[in-house]
Amino acid sequence: MNEVADVQPQLQQQNELKGIGGWLYLVAFGVIVSPLFLAVEYLPMLVDYMNGAYEITANPNSKSFVPHLELLLNVEMLANAFMLLVSLALLYLFFSKHRWFPRVFIFLCVFSPLFLIADAWIVHKLMPDLVAIDEATVLDIIRAIIYALIWVPYMLISKRVKNTF
What pTM was computed for the model? Predict the structure, then answer.
């Protein structure tokens, strides 16, 4: 009889920690806003890219030619499109409370700073005269790392996350 009484509060606590609530409201805000920010940042670059704004630096006959820049731009466009698509998938996974949400969220949290670091390093190597690692880039990298340091452990440890997804 005593065991049943002990199980009752545990079940009640599990039910209280299920669904969108608590810190998951902040995650929801980020999941909703992230695709918007990515689209606002990515779409103008894509339009410029499609309109040939970078052709002069990618043309070997041009005085402004930068070797391997075309490859770098292609990789950046694909990576940004990938991040936008994954962030849109996260919206679906989050609101459908799909079990894959924490995994995909963690992947994006880890991928983002790694991509920013790799991109800045490659740009620096391709164009050493250009200041590729400026204050804004460093702040973006630090922000992405801090975001990951906060939310990855939350996704791994939180009972609400385990009960919801």
Answer: 0.82
